[in-house]
Write a structure and sequence with these properties.
heterodimer, A: alpha+beta, Alpha-Beta Plaits, 4 helices, 8 strands, 29% helix, elongated, B: alpha/beta, Rossmann fold, Dihydrodipicolinate Reductase, domain 2, 2 domains, 6-stranded mixed sheet, binds NADP nicotinamide-adenine-dinucleotide phosphate
Chain lengths: 167, 332
């Protein structure tokens, strides 16, 4: 599941609140990715903002929301984001001459991205070739870093990079 | 306003078609909207034809066809002396200084006259100045035809989606590029081959630079970003990549994954970019041929997508004249 749901909540500043709020999440089997307790950002009414990121099925999401409302937790915002964990990229140019191995290595060496598939198409020697690479990301938030590296490589090797629309 | 006095500057494909349709539908427009108008002046690169009482459009069109110009000898009036209410600006797009369109539009607005333009240059280079001049002089400036040919994008955002905040726009805004990429993908033909074919068919111009290098798309995105998203961008701010480097092989590789490559323009408040992107073949934006398409991301209505012909004489005239009818309604 690559949908991340983010809950922005506001809790009363009394002991035991956080545990109370997390209860429905575990009850309905949500996978909690992170909990950030913004003690330092108390609202004018003395409430404490909390951001909870989870992975959870759509139908369970409703149950969690209902339960939070019953507990009179203030729900400021709920939003969903599809995170990208893998994507394709096309490279056009002298992909082979400029060292395809080196290109792949530089991505793999990051430690958070890996080239898991490669298709190459060459019309004739000397003509430009085209390559389709499939990249897997260990951490979705590293996507832009990977794209930066790809841009760097393409500039250095005079390659055209074609990204997917969603990336 | 009893009667709208219209001046057309630039009498080529678009200017002539606008005049033709206005003439042909004169009675329909009168019955439906109460619109009454006279074409009081027309200008091409060689000169002008002017008449305060209204020109005979049929004769004007046949003169232009026969002689290549509408210039009339012995014109007593100069184009700057004629009285008019609405300028329709259809001179060629110029991305260096926007002229002659920029001065034409500014002069009209300064005199409090309304303006409709199909010319992208002035808007993409001097949006702020034009919008401010229009506002200051209580003149209207409409430009639907500059961005998507026949497709209502600006009016969709300003009127039908008025209750929404629009956060981004993405789309295909150049029919020539879309045609070339669609044909290359379908027939496995190289870029040069398909470009020549497009030139023979009149889909690409003999100098295709504006289209294939993404400049045309960038100009349109700037106009969209400024007018719809409230950006303050200029053409120079856009990251532009065109389609010249796209190979048949890259399209084949995309095809294997049920994708294709499209030249997309993307704008949000921070950034405008134009570049080829891989698009799933079942994605709404994956339209073929010379079609254009745009998706507006809104806060209330979700995603709204519009598609249609992005260029062509009657398609462009459709947008110009719809703007004209809108101005007529607003002024009466
Ligand atoms: N065609 C389309 O499908 C389309 C779609 C959307 C937007 N547009 C835009 O609309 C505008 C007009 O396009 P078009 O296709 O009609 O172009 P066009 O056929 O080349 O016509 C341009 C007209 O402007 C005249 N002109 C050139 N320089 C002039 C000057 N200094 N003063 C006065 N008139 C001058 C030309 O005169 P001559 O007749 O003497 O050469 C011609 O009549 C362009 O800005 C274009 O980008 C076109």
């Amino acid at each position: 599941m690559n949908k991340i749901t983010r809950f922005n909540l506001e809790l009363k500043d009394i002991p035991g609140q956080l545990v109370e709020v997390l209860e429905p999440f575990s009850k309905y089997g949500a996978n909690i990715e992170s909990v950030v307790h913004h003690r330092e950002k108390k609202t004018p009414r003395g409430k404490v903002p909390v951001e909870i990121k989870v992975r959870v099925e759509e139908d369970r999401l409703k149950k969690i929301t209902k339960s939070l409302k019953e507990k009179e937790v203030e729900i400021v915002e709920i939003d969903e984001k599809t995170e990208i964990t893998s994507f394709n990229i096309i490279l056009i140019g002298h992909v082979l001459h400029t060292g395809i191995k080196d290109t792949i290595n530089r991505i793999d060496q990051t430690g958070y991205a890996e080239v898991v598939d490669l298709s190459l198409s060459m019309p004739e020697i000397k003509e430009k070739s085209s390559a389709m690479l499939r990249l897997e990301l260990e951490a979705p938030e590293k996507k832009n870093k990977v794209l930066d590296i790809l841009n760097e490589i393409s500039e250095e090797k005079d390659l055209e990079v074609i990204k997917e629309i969603s990336v | 306003m009893n009667e709208m006095k219209i001046l057309i500057r630039g009498f080529g494909t678009v200017g002539q078609e606008v005049a033709r349709v206005l003439d042909k539908k004169r009675n329909v427009f009168k019955d439906k909207f109460g619109l009454k108008f006279d074409l009081v002046g027309v200008e091409d690169s060689k000169g002008s034809a002017l008449s305060e009482d209204g020109l005979n459009i049929e004769r004007l069109l046949s003169t232009k066809k026969k002689t290549g110009s509408i210039k009339e000898k012995g014109d007593k009036l100069g184009i700057n002396e004629i009285n008019y209410d609405l300028l329709i600006e259809c001179t060629p797009t110029n991305i260096k200084d926007g002229e002659p369109g920029l001065s034409n539009i500014l002069n009209a607005l300064k005199d409090g006259n309304d303006v409709i333009t199909s010319n992208k240059g002035p808007l993409a280079l001097k949006w702020n100045k034009l919008a401010k001049t229009a506002e200051k002089n209580n003149a209207k400036l409409k430009f639907e035809a500059t961005v998507g040919g026949a497709i209502p994008i600006i009016n969709l955002a300003e009127n039908s989606l008025a209750s929404n905040k629009i956060s981004s726009i993405i789309g295909i805004l150049n029919g020539t590029c879309n045609y070339i990429l669609t044909r290359m993908a379908a027939e496995s033909l190289p870029y040069e081959h398909v470009l020549n074919e497009a030139q023979d068919l009149g889909i690409a111009e003999s100098d295709p630079t504006y289209d294939v290098e993404g400049i045309d798309t960038a100009l349109k995105m700037v106009i969209i970003a400024n007018s719809i998203l409230g950006a303050e961008a200029s053409y120079q701010d856009v990251d532009i990549k065109g389609i010249k480097e796209i190979t048949t092989e890259s399209l084949e590789l995309a095809e294997e994954k049920n994708k294709t490559i499209k030249l997309l323009g993307k704008a949000d408040k921070e950034k405008i970019e134009v570049e080829p992107r891989m698009v799933p073949k079942d994605h709404p934006l994956s339209v073929g041929g010379t079609l254009n398409i745009a998706t507006l991301e809104t806060d209330l209505a979700g995603e709204i997508t519009v598609t249609g012909k992005g260029a062509g004489a009657s398609e462009t005239a459709s947008s110009v004249i719809s703007d004209l009818i809108e101005i007529w309604k607003e002024r009466n």
